Amino acid sequence: MRYSGELIYDSCIYAMCAHIAAIPRLLYISHEKFWDEETFCFRSQFGTDGAISFNPQNGALVGTFRRNDSPRICEYLGENVHSLFADADESVYKYAQEQALQYMLISFEQKVKRRSLFAKKTKEVALPVVTTVFWSEGNDVFSSDEENSFLENGGEYVDIICVSKTSLGEYLNESYELTSEEIDFAETLFDRRKHGGTAISKDLLLNIADEKSVGYDALLSALSGFNVSIK
After folding, report:
1. What distance in Å separates the CA atoms of residue 32 and residue 19, rounded to the nearest whole number?
2. What is the pTM of this model?
3. Which of 45, 98, 189, 200 is the most buried (most CB within 10 A)?
């Protein structure tokens, strides 16, 4: 694929920073993207849900995507997802099972044997459902799909954000209609997060949110998931 692992990581970090900056003003978007430890998730972006996990041990990544109008929606679920990783090392699929695929679960009713006259006939199980994936080996990124198929089955958001930082900044600023204070916040947060920083000053938060507001609480929650503390 034409993306590098470093570009995907930087783009996801920056996209999350801009999203966090806008949360106090646009509370309704707070569920659309979140960062949980080592996984970046987005929900219903262009009809697609996605999760990209970044392995802190070796720097590798794995991305899983579900385009909800894809004809593949009933094809790659449960153990069938493994076939999308057929060209990857088994360790890649194992990491996907431990991380990204845990964010792609859908509940299904599964028939079970009746043990008694009054026992239920079904039980609910959660299975991962995806329509395309990618992973990295070193800085190179691979997928079981050719580029067009990858984009058609869930990769379009990644394609949009994997551009130069200047172009991505323009796209995000326009998408969220960021204020100058929010842009400064996003840039500072990106710089800290990119270079391993885990803390930002409270004064920076107060530039974009009232401490007594619901938006401030949502901002703190988003930063906590993003592994950032307040000093």
Report:
1. 9
2. 0.91
3. 189
